[in-house]
Amino acid sequence: MSKKIKSLSQFQLAMQGFKQNRLAVVCAWILGIFYFCAIFADFLAPYSFKNEERNYSYCRPTVVRFVDEGRLSRPYVNAMQLTFDEYHKRVYQVDAQKKYPIRLFIKGDEYKILGLIPCSYHLFGVEDPGRIYLFGADARGRDLFSRLLYGGRISLSIGVIGVAISFSIGLLLGGIAGYYGGLTDEIIMRICEMMMMIPGFYLLLALRAAVPDDFNSIQVYFSIVIILSFIGWAGLARIIRGMCLSLKTREYVLAAKAMGVSDIRIIVHHILPHTLSYSIIAIMLSIPGYILGESGLSLLGLGIVDPYASWGNMLSDAMSVVHITFAPWILLPGILIFITVMCFNVIGDALRDCLDPKFKMEEI
Amino acid sequence: MLLELKKVKKYFPLPQELFQKEREYVRAVDNVDLTINAGENLGLVGESGSGKTTLGRIILKLYPATEGAVFLEGKDITSLSNKEMRPLRKNIQMVFQDPYSSLDPRCTIRNVLNEAFVLEGKVVFEERIKRMKGVLRAVGLSVSSLDKYPHEFSGGERQRIAIARALIMNPKLLILDEAVSSLDVLIQEQVIDLLKELQDKYDLTYLFITHNLRVVRKLCQKIAVMYKGKIVELAGTEEVFSNPIHPYTKKLLAAALDYKANYQEDEFEIK
Ligand SMILES: Nc1ncnc2c1ncn2[C@@H]1O[C@H](COP(=O)(O)OP(=O)(O)O)[C@@H](O)[C@H]1O
Ligand SMILES: [Mg+2]
Hints:
The structure holds 2 protein chains of 2 kinds.
Chain A: H1 10-18, H2 22-39, H3 41-44, E1 65-68, E2 71-84, E3 90-101, E4 103-113, E5 117-125, H4 144-180, H5 182-197, H6 200-209, H7 217-247, H8 251-258, H9 263-271, H10 276-299, H11 311-315, H12 321-326, H13 332-355, H14 357-363
Antiparallel strand pairs in A: 1-2, 2-3, 4-5
Chain B: E1 3-13, E2 25-36, E3 42-45, H1 52-59, E4 67-72, E5 75-76, H2 82-85, E6 92-95, H3 109-114, H4 116-120, H5 125-138, H6 155-167, E7 173-177, H7 185-202, E8 205-210, H8 213-216, E9 222-227, E10 230-236, H9 237-242, H10 247-270
Parallel strand pairs in B: 3-8, 3-9, 6-7, 7-8
Antiparallel strand pairs in B: 1-2, 1-4, 4-5, 9-10
The complex binds adenosine-5'-diphosphate and magnesium ion (MG).
């Protein structure tokens, strides 16, 4: 064995194993890109999520052209002309005469960088009256690409914030229940069981019904996050409690106790860190639940409402077969949800393989 | 008198079966009276399951005693709350049985030793480092061990770390629960020599818990033999070895001497 300069904890050693799982690394990159795009949505998107153009309802994806009259030119898009065919169906025709070059760092809709600094530059776009619809348009002629980016903000962040809240509650309550035992344990566990007895989606709907109707979109967003985390903590708390029951009899816990270390410090320093590998796996595997929960609510019109975009409410457009056949690109939010959920699951599984102590034991 | 136990009992309830009227108990420690004087090491010997560990943990107040009282330097600590007990904790420390589970695998040795200062509150950084290095040297480990994790050490070294962790608190009584039992014979000897050396240096008194009579001879002035939760014999070490009274002691002694004979034979063959 080569001499190591820095001592590695067992956790760090396990993470080296993760990097050897190609698929999981690819998934981590995909998620990284998704989250990056969501954070910088206002800059990356050519339009704001509200920017609509009724004349371009369900306009098909714009083709970016590089060849102009047989010669290579800077990329441009053609104008689209809405006409009706003999059956009175909408048909978009390319108007080859009107060309709009794609410009970088173009001025467009106003937004605030990270919610603070006002700015109106976008990564790319075309001059009015041209429109660029990379992934097509929705019913009201809004750019699907832009709305996917904005929708990602909500759909992707809901998972992370929800998990952060529910895991803090679950870890701490589970830790306390397991460590102290007795009456504390009984009370916390009964509450958990009550939460877990009610089927998740009904509880979600019931709690949503308790939220006032006149909330604005930010309030709705946070109430959904809180509802989702309110449902999520119980399962984790139960498992963490079980682990704590056995962890608290470990001799290093007794040693810390004998040294006069306080209970809460023991829980935080010597007990919860040992549930970390389980927790990380559980976090990865439960984020999809939050994303799907938000999608479900929004799909039913109980979550994020128009004009605000989330992958769930964008998908509610795709509930009619007629629209899907005419404009199949409105299924894209569903595909993104699918990819995201898959990525989290693959990463969760890969982490389980390299963090699970039992698995490690067999290797040695 | 450093420590005194009066009629200490510890009953663990067995899981109650359906329709069973009375609850049954394991009498892990049953009516134990014991005194330990400062500077006078006591060996607590008995087969596994006789309640030695439980007794040690009662002294540390890791378990509450079912009945009886524990006096530390004349002060009754049985009924003290956790908070009142905390400042007294440093007086009694323990080295645990299993060197593999007595160190948190996620903590470096520095983290482990640092825990001592949680109780003391504000101790300046230099002072901390000085004391940490001091105890590490005292137990024969290099100072560079500070930033290593427990899995980088052997069993014997881990037990030394556990001793260092106890020493950094400056205890008066050190309970060694089968501290050398899981180590192989040569390492056992080394650790016992170390303990002897440390006793003078740190002014310690040991309560040496073991199932093996042989190892207590070198270290302890007195021996208490424990059997099914009770102390069945309590006498000076040489007296126990030369003139055991209780049949159980005789059995233990026979086992220890037998083992010793074998061991010497082996040694002879190697030469
Ligand atoms: N936490 C506990 N709960 C229930 N029974 C216990 C517990 N700890 C120890 N016992 C029982 O008490 C008896 C004495 O155990 P112990 O003190 O560990 O013995 P020793 O250390 O001498 O091997 C054993 O029968 C054991 O099963
Ligand atoms: Mg024991």
